[in-house]
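Notes, p. 3: input format for complexes.
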Amino acid sequence: MAEVPHARLEAIRDSVSRAVANAKITDIHTHIYPPEFGELLLWGIDELLTYHYLIAETMRYVDIPPERFWTLTKRAQADLIWKTLFLERSPISESCRGVLTTLDRLGLDVSARDLDSYRRFFAEQSIEDYVDRVFELAGVDSVIMTNDPFDDLECPVWFANTSFDSRFRAALRMDGLLNSWQTAVPKLREWGYMVNNDINAETVEEVRRFLRDWIERMNAVYLAVSLPPSFVFPENSPRGKLISECVLPVAVETQKPFAMMIGVKKLTNPSLRLAGDSVGKASIEVVEYLCSNYQDAKFLVTMLSRENQHELCVAARKFRNLHVFGCWWFLNNPSIIDEITRMRFELLGLSVTPQHSDARVLDQLIYKWAHSREIIANVLADKYVDLAATGWRVTEDEIRRDVASLFGGNFWNFVR
Ligand code: HDL
Ligand code: ZN
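Output follows (416 residues plus zinc ion):
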C-alpha cells in the first residue's frame, strides 16, 4: 500500500471537484416543462415553497386540517410554509435547505429572510431569460421531462404540434395506461384507438399503435412508468398483459428503454394529495425476470426503497440491459445519496447514472444539482484516493472522462 503524499490527495480532490463542477448534466428524470407548456411550468418562490415535500413537512406542525390547507391561495400556502418551516424553526430538512440554496445561488440575501423581497425578484424575471439562467446556474444542458398523454393540460400541447426548447426532451409516461386501464379505455377510444376493457388481439394492436404514435409525437427518449412495491411480472392483470403484449414488444421494436420506477405506494394519506404517497420494498425478482427474459429490451430502473438498493446493484451486475439510475424521491437526501453512490461505485464502477433531480419546479434544478454534485464528487474523489494508494495515477483527462459518463454519457450510450 503506497503512502500517498498529502499534496497528491489534495490534487485529486481538486481535480474531481473541478470536473464535477464543470460537468454539463443531462437530467434524466424531471417534472419540469418549457414555457410553451403553459401552467405546467412551475417556477418562482411560491412554487418552491409549496413543493409537495414541504407541504408534507408543514402539515406535521400546523393545527389545520389538509382540507383547509387546500382552500388557501398558493401565496397563503407559501406564507404558512415559510412561517412554519423557516421562521418558527430552523429549516434544516433537505427540502427546506434546497429553497435557500436556490435563493442564494440566484444572488438573493438569504440572511434577510425577506420573503416579499424574494417575491419581487421573481416578479421581475422574464421566463424565457430565466430558464437560461436556471440551466446555467444548475450546469444542466438537457432535461428529460415526464410526459403523460392522459394529462388534460398536457395533451393539447402535443396535438397543437408546438415547437419548444430543444433542451427539454420527452419521456412517454405510461402510468395512465398501465396503472388505470379501466380509465384509459374511454380516452383511448375517444382518440380513435379501438380498444376494449378485455385486452384481446385487436386491443393489443391498438395499444401498440397508441404507443408508437406517442413515441413519434413526443420523439420520446424512453418509456416510463411508476410501479407499486407489489409489482410482479408476469401477471394475469391488465398491467401484466399490457406490459408483455404491448410495452415490451414496442420497446424492443423501437429500441426505446423501458424505465421502471418501482416502490411507490400511492396515496398512503390521500388528504395530502401529491404529498400523500409513500414507499415500500419491492421485489427485485421482477427486475431480474424482465432483464433475463427480455434480453433485447433495455431497462432503466430506479427503486424507491433504501432496502432495495443493494440487490438492485447486484442485479445490474448480472444484466447489461439493466441501467440503474438516481436516488429517487425519499432517497434524495445527502446521507442516503452518499450511501447509495458508494455502494454503486463499489459494485458497478462507473456503469450507472447516479442521480436525477426529479425537479417539479424549474428553479429546483439549481439546488438539487448543487447538493448532489457535492456528494457525488466527494464519493468519487474517495474512490480515486483509494486507487492512488495502490500506486495507480489517474489523470485529469481521465477524471473528466469518468465524470462525463456519470452525468449523462452513460445514459445517452444506453439509450442509443
Ligand atoms: O412518479 C414520479 O415520477 C415521482 O417522482 C413523483 O412525481 C413524486 O411525486 C415526486 O415528485 N418525487 O420526487
Ligand atoms: Zn418523478
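The beta strands are 25-27, 140-144, 168-169, 171-173, 222-227, 258-262, 264-265, 278-279, 299-303, 322-324.
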